Structure formats: structure tokens, C-alpha cells
Amino acid sequence: MDTVLIVGINGAIGNATARFFREQGFHCIGTTSKMQQRKAASSDLLYLDLNNQDSIVGLSKKLPALSGIVFCAGLKPSNNLADTSLAHHQQMMNMHVTGPLFVVQSLQKKLKKNGAIVFISSIAAQKGSYDPSYAIAKSAVIGMTRTLANELAEKKIRVNAIAPGLVKDTPVDKGMTADFRAKHLKQTILNKLTTASDCAEAIYFLFSQKQMTGQVVHVNGGQYFGN
Length: 227
Description:
The protein is of the alpha/beta class. Helix content is 43%, strand content 18%. The chain is built from nine helices and seven strands, in the order E-H-E-H-E-H-E-H-E-H-H-E-H-H-H-E. The chain has helices at 12-23, 35-39, 53-59, 86-107, 124-127, 132-152, 171-174, 178-187, 196-208; strands at 3-7, 27-32, 45-47, 66-71, 111-120, 158-164, 216-219. Helix 1 (12-23) packs across helix 9 (196-208), helix 3 runs parallel beside helix 4 and helix 4 (86-107) runs parallel beside helix 6.
């Protein structure tokens, strides 16, 4: 049975992705940054701190050969320009870019030939965010995706990303004011928010389509080019 690592498996998108992959016959190993969850979980849930190099390097020793990695861990936007800080900016970059980059570096030898990596960017990379650090990090994910696709092509490893809009029933959605949610909805041309299941299906498509690499697929109801 092929094994897929899902970084951030307990989030809405991570959970939906694991469920979808298991339905396709994959064995899923997930990571969590919450040590108490790891202690109460099975061997298919591993502790990973994306801010800690030792934690990232140590992950490799606990994993079998992998058919792919899906990065679902992240931080929601929270600080506008006036309220942002260096610590907040660094945390955003660590969670979305720096940590994942070094996970790939550490695990590349674990990836089988014809393996795949999928990242999660955001509509914020195109349209911006009230949290500049979030938009910057999600923009960097696109650059990382294309760079690693080129770097790892020789090893027959494909690298892609999805760029969702506001995802329904996530902490970002639940913490949003009604008027801000309505603004997001109005920007779509399908008049429908993205779901975690929509994201999971797109992730699986990128994972399984052998001619897709270096691509960013927009899963946002046309918000990418809407109003």
C-alpha cells in the first residue's frame, strides 16, 4: 500500500485530504504540532514542529518510503500592517514556507520515483490580505512550488499547489465577520465558498495527474478573476 504524509492532518483541509486519499486506497500518516494529541494517538500520527530543525530532521527516521507529501499546516491571517511584528512575520514564514522547505529537503530521499508534493497557497497571493505577512507567505509558496518542481524533476518527483479562496467552516471562516464573508462570496463568480472537500479533490488530482508539475490550481469559485 502506498503511503502519503499529510503535514497538518488535523486541520479541516488535512482531515478531508486524509479521508479522500484513504478512500483511494492510500495509507496516510499525519503530523501534528500538539504533543498532547500525539501522545493519545496511533503510530500514524507523528509530532512535528515546523519551527524546529531537530523536529524536522527527526521526522525522517520515523517514516517509511513515501509516495508523496501534502502540506496542510498553516496559520490563519490575524495581524494588519499596524499590528504586525517581526515574530508574527517569522512565524507565518516558518509555518508556510521555511518549515515545509526543510521538510522536503529532509524527506526527499524517502520519496519514491514518480512521487508528488502538494502545497497550499491562497487567493491572498493574488488579491492580497489584510495580514501582509500571510499574503507574503502564500506568495512565497508559489515561488517554492515552481522552484522545487524544477529542482526535483530529475528525481521524477512532481511539485504542485492549490490556491483556495475562503474555505467554509475553517477557523478563518468561523472567525470572520458576516460582512467580510459576504465580500469574499461576492468576489467569486460561482457565488459559493470553497469547501475542504473541494480542496481535497483538487489535491488528489494534482497528486495523481502525471503531467502536472510546477502548477498552481485555483480552487476558489473564480475569485481569482472575479470582482
